[in-house]
Fold this protein.
Amino acid sequence: MAKRDTILVVEDEPLVALLISDALEDAGFRTEGAETAQEGKAKALANWDRLAAVTLDLNLKGSYGGDLGEYLLRRKLMAPIIVATGYGADGLHGAIMHLPVLAKPFDPDDLLDAIYRGIALQPWANTIGFSPLKRTIRRTIPKSAPRSRR
């Protein structure tokens, strides 16, 4: 199994893409960048087994980035898709309307939190290939239910 250590950053604003990529790389991820939905699709397919997550802007040089999100969902991408957009949840429709949304501008820690939470839900999260991030996930995500006192 390939190591899932890559995050696809689909963002058409170069400065925003750089800020997102820097935050992710500082957290230990590799990043692949794409400025259009078409480029994002090609890079997603090329890195399919290594994708740990995708960050997706909705307005990509005049096209709707949600189409890429819907494509990735139809292909059953085994990685979380985080929508990072200036439109907030109002810009979501169709199959992507239930994806997590970060409204721009956002704090890089909020992005990492959303990614770690999404990764923790993936069936591959406990594989050896994901081990470099396990400790970070355990520290970042609190226990969801209190322990019983039996």
